[in-house]
Specification:
The protein is an alpha/beta fold and 442 residues long. Helices cover 37% and strands 16% of the residues.
Length: 442
């Protein structure tokens, strides 16, 4: 069966923010494509972002691929763009089936299907590889849709039906590697992260899930409450494949928290060190999962920068948002990371539940006192599937309809205000001021 997967446009998400030109290979779609190929299906991938296609050119390519099924994936800010693609597909050819998955759908499967069932045939929620493969098999062989866990569909009466949630795969090694060969990998060059190397950057994961319980994060909606790890050898095999097939030395580990498991990360570093070539690594960490020994091994393995979700400079706010960290822990993690010779990137959120002008000023002051290499300042956006989304609804804090997802922007826009005494205009001014000050000092 011919399946076409499409990366959704995202430019409007950054329309108020001069986003640096970073084009990332859509890893989720690549995993889906890899599993479909492994199970014997023909897959075409279209990425209009990296190929510079407009909507008409994208649609022409989709139709030319002669698909029986067209699928895409979406986070909350781009859900409207993703649905527009599928709506136009159905308009062009009503015989083509349409399906959508991704983080937003995992949080809102019934809502998404019910509100778009005139052109949307299926939704996939949770871990999607096996679900969409079974869906394709069902369409090909006529198996009953109601038996596919993790799937939503429109029945013969036009009713939206959501099947039971799929159990998470215990053995992550069983998944096929992402089908990067279907993408123009040489176009995914990240001059922001790897300015001294023109080889493509490769995003990959060593695990799924996060130990954190942050109120603003929807990771558990898709990956559950526990962290699952790939074997070290399976990860090394993927690194080797990417180096051999695409000539890449630049790797971004997209795990929620790459440094969760001490033995796993150190064993992985040891294997990377033994490779006959050097690689560059960028990864994410929590300040409560890092120490000198891990940092020493990461540095030896080629890790040049770690991004930390710092979020706030006030201990009470950190507690309120479920971060389970303190300012002292933050300062220690950044200090020992710099001492190890690894660059630091910090992410900060302003407008958290209970934030005041004073606590936000603490956050800004902390960001500058840490002497980070890079900093990111975002205004809190309560996303569906998160605790803070429910908090915002309860407090009537949304500045738009909570389902008006086209308004969910992280930069120079206030989706919901959960602060105590900071106006929307002040939040935007603080974000602009933080970036202006950062750029002037950089």
């Amino acid at each position: 069966m011919n399946v076409t997967l499409v990366n959704s446009f995202d430019s409007n998400v950054y329309q108020n923010f001069k986003r640096l030109d970073i084009k990332d290979l859509p890893l989720g779609l690549a995993y889906i494509a890899g599993q479909l190929e492994k199970d014997g299906h023909n897959v075409t991938v279209i990425d209009p972002i990296v190929d510079g296609l407009d909507s008409n050119e994208t649609m022409d390519r989709i139709i030319e691929s002669n698909p029986l099924l067209v699928g895409t994936s979406a986070t909350t800010p781009i859900i409207g763009n993703a649905l527009e693609i599928l709506k136009e597909v159905k308009h062009r050819d009503s015989n083509i089936y349409t399906v959508i998955g991704g983080p937003h759908i995992s949080a809102t499967p019934l809502e998404t299907l019910e509100n778009n069932k005139d052109f949307l045939d299926f939704v996939v929620f949770g871990e999607g590889e096996h679900t969409i493969s079974e869906l394709v098999m069902s369409l090909d062989k006529g198996y009953p849709l109601k038996s596919i866990s993790g799937l939503g569909f429109v029945d013969n009466r036009g009713l939206a039906k959501i099947n039971e949630k799929r159990q998470l795969e215990r053995d992550l090694n069983s998944f096929a590697f992402p089908a990067r060969h279907l993408f123009p990998v040489d176009k995914y060059i990240n001059k922001v992260r790897f300015e001294k190397d023109d080889t493509p950057h490769i995003s990959l994961t060593s695990s799924r899930g996060c130990v954190g319980k942050c109120t603003f994060c929807g990771s558990q909606t898709t990956w559950g409450k526990r962290v699952r790890f790939r074997s070290v050898q399976n990860i090394i095999d993927e690194i080797k494949q990417c180096h051999n097939d695409f000539g890449s030395n630049n790797f971004i580990f997209a795990d929620d928290t790459f440094t969760t498991n001490r033995k796993h990360v150190i064993d992985m570093c040891k294997e990377i060190i033994d490779l006959p070539y050097s690689i560059n690594i960028f990864c994410s960490s929590r300040v409560d999962t890092i120490d000198e020994e891990k940092l020493d091994w990461l540095k030896k393995a080629g890790c040049y920068c770690i991004t930390y979700g710092i979020e706030s400079g006030d201990n009470e706010i950190l507690k309120a948002i479920g971060k389970n960290t303190t300012v002292d822990m933050i300062e220690n993690a950044i200090n020992i990371t710099k001492q190890a010779g690894i660059e630091t990137h910090g992410s900060f959120i302003i407008g958290n539940l209970g934030d005041t002008k004073e606590t936000i000023e603490k956050t800004i002051q902390l960001a500058f006192s840490l002497d980070l290499n890079e900093a990111q300042f975002t205004i809190l956006v309560p996303l569906p599937g998160t605790v803070c989304y429910e908090q915002a609804i309860k407090l009537k804090a949304f500045r738009c309809n909570p389902t008006d997802y086209k308004s969910f922007f992280f930069y120079y826009s206030v989706v919901a205000n959960l602060t105590k005494d900071v106006s929307d205009e002040e939040l935007i001014d603080i974000q602009r001021g933080a970036y202006k000050r950062w750029n002037e000092n950089g």
